[in-house]
Amino acid sequence: MDVILEAFGQAAGLIGTFDARLIGIVALSLQVSLSAVAIATLVGLPIGAALAVRKFPGRQALVVLLNAMMGLPPVVVGLLVYLLLSRAGPLGPLGILFTPSAMVVAQTILILPIIAALTRQAVEDAWHEYREQLTSLGAHGWTAALTLVWDIRFSLITAVLAGLGRAAAEVGAVMIVGGNIDGVTRVMTTAIALETSKGDLPLALSLGVILVTLVLLLNAAAQSLKQLAVQRYG
């Protein structure tokens, strides 16, 4: 018990003194995860909105596939991205394997289906509610989709946060394509796994505390924003 308390005390010290190594790992984690979320949002929102309002052959199959991809095994995604980016792979000439860019690619593939699927469900629910009104105003296709996305924009924050949560907690894929290289591709989750195995509990605990705190703050901010939207727009 004394060892655990001592580890927590040292972890608090690392956080309180803004340890350079700790800050570097956290900064890289945020850079990778936020970049992946931004890309996945830019691609996933239009895909989800289009699937919600447009009818075409094979749509249901795409919806099923998208929902299934929400549960993609991270290590499998990491392996596939590794094969694509390796020297023998089709994207090998890019030379981004074992770099933060490769980690962004892996995380984007993992979270894009989540954002797209949740967006589709939210927009589809809104489409069923406002379809007659939008149709009477002459809004069809992309016009209707964009209108609905804007109308429920605060609700879609949940979809984006779900993607961010998945990205921030990811270990397997980023470990494979990033290599967990100290000072280059070591993020919070991979550092926690490594430092725990090495017995460096203070650093692992400090990173764990920061990771949990960030998730709580993001969700609190999203909830506050949604409540503000309800008060303002009803």
TrEMBL record:
- Tell me which UniProt keywords the record has, alphabetically: Membrane, Transmembrane, Transmembrane helix
Stretches assigned to the ABC transmembrane type-1 domain: 26-222
Where does the sequence pass through the membrane? 22-49, 61-85, 97-118, 156-181, 201-222
Superkingdom in the source lineage = Bacteria
Task: Please give the biological process terms from Gene Ontology that the record holds.
Answer: transmembrane transport
Query: What is the topology of this protein in the membrane according to its UniProt annotation?
Result: Multi-pass membrane protein
CDD domains, sorted:
TM_PBP2
Localization in the cell: Cell membrane
Provide the Gene Ontology terms for cellular component: plasma membrane
Under the heading PANTHER family, the entry gives: PERMEASE COMPONENT OF TUNGSTATE ABC TRANSPORTER
Q: What's the name of the protein?
A: ABC transporter permease
